[in-house]
Structure formats: C-alpha cells, structure tokens
Amino acid sequence: MATAPxxxxxxxxxxxxxxxGLYFENEHFTYSSAYDGRDALAHVVSDKPDLIxxxxxxxxxTGIEVCREIxxxxxxxxxxxxxxxxxxxxxxxxxxxxxxxxVKPFSPREVIARIKAVLRRINEPQENTSFLRFEGxxxxxxxxxxKVKGELVPCTPKxxxxxxxxxxxxxxxxxxxxxxxxxxxxxxxxxTRTVDTHIKRIRQKIYYEGAPWSLITVYxxxxxxxxxx
Amino acid sequence: MATAPxxxxxxxxxxxxxxxGLYFENEHFTYSSAYDGRDALAHVVSDKPDLIxxxxxxxxxTGIEVCREIxxxxxxxxxxxxxxxxxxxxxxxxxxxxxxxxVKPFSPREVIARIKAVLRRINEPQENTSFLRFEGxxxxxxxxxxKVKGELVPCTPKxxxxxxxxxxxxxxxxxxxxxxxxxxxxxxxxxTRTVDTHIKRIRQKIYYEGAPWSLITVYxxxxxxxxxx
DNA sequence: AAATAGTATTTACGATTTGTTCACATTCGT
DNA sequence: ACGAATGTGAACAAATCGTAAATACTATTT
Lengths: 229, 229
Known about the structure:
The structure is a homodimer. Chain A is α/β, with parallel strands linked by helices. The longest helix of chain A is centred in the middle third of the chain and has 16 residues, at about 110-125. Helix content of chain A is about 40%, strand content about 25%. Chain A has helices at about 15-25, 35-45, 65-75, 90-95, 110-125, 155-165, 175-185, 195-205, and strands spanning about 5-10, 30-35, 50-55, 80-85, 100-105, 130-135, 135-140, 145-150, 150-155, 175, 215-220, 220-225. The interface of A and B includes residues 28, 108, 172, 219 and 227 of A. Chain B binds a DNA duplex through helix 8.
C-alpha cells in the first residue's frame, strides 16, 4: 500500500459496487469485487487487499462467516456493511474482529472517512500525547485533570476524554460517530446526540471570554477544536 | 524548478544568510536575500522563488505578516524560522499557510532536509488529498475551511465538499449526476438543479477579479474547475 | 441492602442554519 | 430567432444544533 490502497468490495448487490466504485475512483483507490461469500474468500487470497468491505447478507456464506474465516489467518482490516434493521449483528461483527461497521444506506463521505480512519489506525502507531497544553488550557489524560488559566476545572471522565480527543486533532472535524467509536468503543449503541450534551457541558466549563481556542460546530458534520480563530 | 530550486532567505541577521547560503551552495541550490519584511515581499515578486525561508522577527514587517501577505496571492512553499524562546505558536504559523517551521539554532542537515521534504511534498502527486492549495485559494476538507487570499471565507459543508470535489479534478468536467452521487450519495433522488444553486453560491463566495482559477460551466454537460495556464 | 451522590443518557423543543425548489431572467448553441 | 440549458434571487422546507430537564445508571457510603 505504498500509494493508494486496494479495497475488496463483497456484496451481492451490484448497486453497492457501482456506488462504492464511484467513490473509490474519485479517491484514486483501486478495488475489486466479490458477489458472494465464497467468491469473497477467493478474492481475499488472490487480490491481497489492504481493506475489505463485507456485506452481512450474502449468498453462499454470510459476511459474519467470511469475517470469521478471514480472521483465522489474516489481519487485513475489515469493515462490515449492513442494512438498517440488521443492526443486532453489530456487536457480533465487531467481536469477530471487524474493524468498523457501516449501516446502509451510507453517504460517500462516511464511507471514505471510515476507510481512511481504519487505515490510519492500522498503519500509524499511536503517539502518546496524554498531556496537551494550550494558552490558558491544559488537558491531562493521565490524571484526568483539566486546567483553565491554571485553575483546576472539575470535569467528568467522559468530558476529559472528549476534550482530549478533539484537542489532539486540532482543526480536524470529527463526526459524532467517530467520537462515539473512539471514546465509547465500537460496540456502543447510543444516541449520537449524547455527544452534543457533553460538548455543551465542556463548553460551559472551559470557555472564557477571549480564549484563543474553541470547540467549533461544523454544521452537518461534527465538532472540531480550533486554535486562534 | 526544472533542476535546482531557488530559495529566498528573509532574515535581518546577516549571519543566517551566510550560513544558509553556504549550505545551499553545497546543495547547488540558488538563493537570494532579503533583510526586512518589505524587502522580502519585493523579492518574492521579482525572484519567483521555489521556496521562501521567513524569519519571524524582522524590521518593517514581521514574518507572520509577510506570510499572510504572500498567501493572498501565491502558493509558494514557506518555511518559518524562529528563535528559541520566541513563543510563536507552531499552530498559528501553520494556520497562516506556512509549510514547515524551524527553530534556531538549526543544523545544516536539518534545514536541507526540511526544504527537500517540503519541496517533495508540494511537487509529488498529492498524497494528502483533503487539502488543496491554489494561488489565492485553499480548500481544507479536514477543517471544512476555505481561504481566499489567505482570508477565511465562510462556506457551508456542501459548498466545501463540492468545491473540493471539482478542485481535486482540475479541468475534468463532472456532470450533475456525478456530483450528486459523489457528494449526496447513491440513495439520493433530488433535482439536479440543486447543484446549480450551490455552484452559484460558491462562485459568489470565492471569486475575485483576476483569480487564476474558476468554476466553468460546460454547456449541456456539467461543471469543471479550471486553472489558468 | 438501601440510600445517596455523582455521572451519563435520553428526550423534547425552540432556534438556527442549511438545503431545496420555484419562478423568472439570461445565455447558449443551432 | 428559437428552444434548451443555465444563472439568480427569494421563498420555503428540512435538517441540525443548543439547551434544559427528566431519567437511568454506577459506585460508594451508610
């Protein structure tokens, strides 16, 4: 994967291949296609994809079975695809060793973002930056303490974690799903609006007039931590 | 820059010019010198350097101001130079559009390595497709921010996405269906004229007299992003 | 084991922003 | 010149967000 990643799409619905193919070409990803479970396994071996997109409902072998098979020998990242209503399988899929989970119908942005996130997570060993400091703001994930202008501000664990997550990705918008996945974990089923409530409280606690940083809402996308706007 | 790059050194300290000059000659880079902010801007225009090294502390105009000025019209790579202890926020520098940041005192190896890295990054086919830069126009899909002449222009998410899509396929005409599929998703069924309205708003927001790029309508087909050659 | 305090989550609703469509003017290609 | 395609502004619809308050959960103390 020196340059662009190669993705293997496994789904019995040609429409999914067409639309994903379009997004991938746009990103200069290459891809190959499998239309049933057995076919999928064959392609995994022959194509050596960098990432596998696996629909749950497929003839011959279900995505779950395929996932289990793959995990016996390979650690290739897998993203499970499922129709709305099949959401029960989420926990199961992830316990089987899938790396992420997308519900149909999906948006282009979502799919591409998830793929990039998974590949990034796989490739880059995480840097240990548990302590972050900005003008008038310190976030310490070792002792779960947040200081504003040197003063300790009592924050709950979730608040510290979310703030740390956003502040360690300055300027980068993170959507609610990403935040939920990274803070709560992949097996969490909750209302994405929960994130909003936490953001609200974090803002209340840390914001002061003239702070050189802020939590910014990107309408329709998510939140980001910005410095000196 | 067919062969060796030309570097513009902007610093009020002659010692810096001497030492950098020495390294550059060794690498067969050519270079020119500016000793204050105003001088720097003049040289940027007349010398058309391939890369600019910009000290923060300079008479007449600080490096920060010069950087901001340059970014209004040019996308020439900039490396910011700063003395240890000068609490210039790395983030701030990079937000202004600088490409890298070196703290004095620097080692020859470090400077050369950084310069080569930046030039490589700029020249090679973009790996980081989420950020696009043109003369007087920057599109950042991580931030969802668009800058025209260095100034932040408030755009809605759809506007940023469409602009980024077109700008990442320079010269290539995309029809309305393609744009809808890639931005809205495969399951969207709406009026294709919606695209027109978004294009209109993008043009209103980003266009300025003499911009070296534009959103062009291809009658009966679609839209494309063009750059003056 | 029950009560309590501290957190987390859900829900609801108004406010706001954004997206879409429509109507009409203008431009384009034939 | 004509019909089709596009530009444009304004009205409208939809989606999203902020916030507060209610509810559920969890760990600790009594």
